[in-house]
Amino acid sequence: MGVSQGKGIRMNQAARWLKILGLCIALFAPAAAAQEGRGDVVYVPTPQVVVDAMLKMAKVGANDFVIDLGSGDGRIVITAAKKHGARGFGVDLDTYLLKMANANAKKEGVTDRARFIEQNLFETDLSQATVITSYLLPEMNEQLRPKILALKPGTRVVAHDYAMGEWDPDDSDTLIVPEKTVGDPGKSYIFFWIVPARVAGHWESRIMAAGKPESWQFNFEQNFQLVHGTARAGKREVKVPQFRMAGEQFAFKVEVPAAGKPRSNSTGQSNGASTTGKLERGKPVTYQFRGWAKGDVIEGNVIVGDDSGQRVMPWRARQTARGEPNMGAAGAITVAGARR
Questions:
Q1: Rounded to whole angstroms, how far apart are CA atoms 98 and 90?
Q2: d(CA 79, CA 81)
Q3: What digits encode the pLDDT tens for the residues 18-27?
Q4: Which residue range is the domain that position 177 belongs to?
Q5: Residue 315 in contact with residue 296, Cβ under 8 Å?
Q6: Is residue 221 a contact partner of residue 323, using CB atoms and an 8 Å limit?
Q7: Can you give the CATH number for the domain in which 295 is found?
Q8: Which residues are CB-contacts of 143 (< 8 A; sequence separation ≥ 6)?
Q9: What is the pTM of this model?
Q10: What is the count of structural domains for the chain?
Q11: Statement to judge: residues 53 and 177 lie in one domain
């Protein structure tokens, strides 16, 4: 009886340890599946459905040059080359993954348009990129942000799962991805930005009004891609509502009070001591501005009037005083010990 009881206890203990072992395997299976590279960081591949959605959101085409930061097995650049005709390269520090990525490019027949190099992503020259892709942790995205915002306006950035801190995305999407077991299991988040031109400051322009040029002045304040400010036409000043920079391009609309005329008295006189001294204000005039900011010059057009009658005129403005846009804290760029 004692022996059989002792054996029963040992069997119960063994069963309990088997359950614990099974639980541990279930908990750590996602991490094990994610670990494909070598070294002390975890490589998590972006699901192919997410890769396709990222490239679609960025509108990647044959004229694009894609740089993938932390390229892993190379699937983003390879897909961009094979499906969209783009060129590009990926950077990584894992030689095992780099060998895999270059082998995959050879297998897919895109070695002339896709290559992978061993390089620190914080030290990579991004100036050639028209599109930058990443699957990096939030702190790494924020460390990269000042470098990305310094790129040519219009450069597109698309990231998987993690955003860029204060810099709100221009577009985003959520995908249901059942096979995804890390991060938010079953879901992937895509974030998209366009590097904005910097327009903060004072701008001066002249626009034809009643057959003669009228002086216009604009003062813009900028927070990443969002801009607002004031416009002054002659002595009439109005607020410029918030608008969004899409790279170099932008558009906004203002309504400016019509230029005043002296108010006539009952005799119909409009000059002299008999006038009231007040000005008659007509219906506000709508101005729709559309422009492209290139350095200290804006070129575009302005539509004057409403649906009852409009005229389109060229619009050109020059920056006479540069402002300081808010592009977030420019933290030190250091190498973090994590990547996708």
A1: 9
A2: 5
A3: 333 433 333 3
A4: 48-194
A5: no
A6: yes
A7: 2.40.128.120
A8: 122, 331, 332, 333, 334, 336
A9: 0.80
A10: 2
A11: yes
